[in-house]
Amino acid sequence: MANSKYAYVRSFELPDSIMPSTFMIVRLDGHAFHRFSADHGFEKPNDERALRLMDAAAKQVMKAYPEVAMAFGESDEYSFLLRKTCNLYNRRSSKIASTFASLFAATYTFSWAEFFPETPLQYPPSFDGRVVAYPSSKEIIDYFAWRQADTHINNLYNTTFWALVLQGNMSTSEAHNALKGTISSQKQEILFSRFQINYNTLPDRFRKGSVLYRQEEITGIGAQVIDDIVQADEIQKKQGTSRSRKVVVVEHCDIIGRSFWEDHASILGEAAD
C-alpha cells in the first residue's frame, strides 16, 4: 500500500468507544451564546424564535440519525438519547459528538433566515458536544429530570431578573443583588406582587423546555399532510386506506414525574431496566 510506512502515526490515536450495553446521552451546548444572543438582539427573558430554531436543528439531527430515541432542549442546549443497543460509529465518543454538533450547527445556520428573517446572521454559531454513558433507565430518567429542573430554575430566575430590569427600571447589577439568596417562592412573589405575572401561567415551552420523540402516526389517502415535526396536540387519526409511519413530535410537558415514561415506555427500548 502506498505510503504505508507512514501509517504508524495512527497508533497515536486513542480509542474512545463508549462502554457497550449502556445508554448514551449526547449533550450539545451553544458556545459563547450569551454574546451571540446579545449580538443578534434576542428578546429577553425568552426569544421563542430562537427556541423554535433550536427545535428545528434538533429535529434534523433526529431525522439524520434514527438511532436517537428522544431529545430534550432548553435555552441553547440539547440532549439526545441513544439506547443501549445503539452501535452508531462503533460507539466512538469523538465521532458521535463531533457529527452531532456539526450537523446541529449547520442546520441552525442554514435555517436562521426562516426564524429570523429580519435579522442577518452576523457570524456562524458553534456548539460543543459531549457523550456520557449511563448504565440503566433510572439514570436516564434522572438525567432528563435534572435538565428539566434546570430549565425551571433558570427560567424563573431570568423571568424575574428581566422583569426587574425591563419593567422595574433596575440596572442589571441591581437586579442581580435584589435576587441574591432568594428561593423560588420569593421570586414568584416578586413577579406576582410587583408585575402581576403569574409564573405558573407562562408558556410551557419556557418553563418545561422541549421534548422531542418519535410517535407512530396513521396516514391515508386524502389525509392531511403533516410535517415531520408537529405539535403533539395537532396529531389526529387519519381516515381511509392507511399505513403507519413515525413522526417526530414536540411537546412541552413534564418529564420529571413517572407518567411520561410510563406513557412512552418504548423510548427506553427493550434494553431498559
Automatic annotation (TrEMBL):
GO terms for molecular function: GTP binding; magnesium ion binding; tRNA guanylyltransferase activity. Mg(2+) 2 binds at D29, D76. Keywords: GTP-binding, Magnesium, Metal-binding, Nucleotide-binding, Nucleotidyltransferase, Transferase, tRNA processing. It holds the Pfam family Thg1. InterPro entries: Thg1_C_dom, tRNAHis_GuaTrfase_cat, tRNAHis_GuaTrfase_Thg1, tRNAHis_GuaTrfase_Thg1_sf. Residues 139-257 form the Thg1 C-terminal domain. This is tRNA(His) guanylyltransferase. It comes from Serendipita vermifera MAFF 305830.
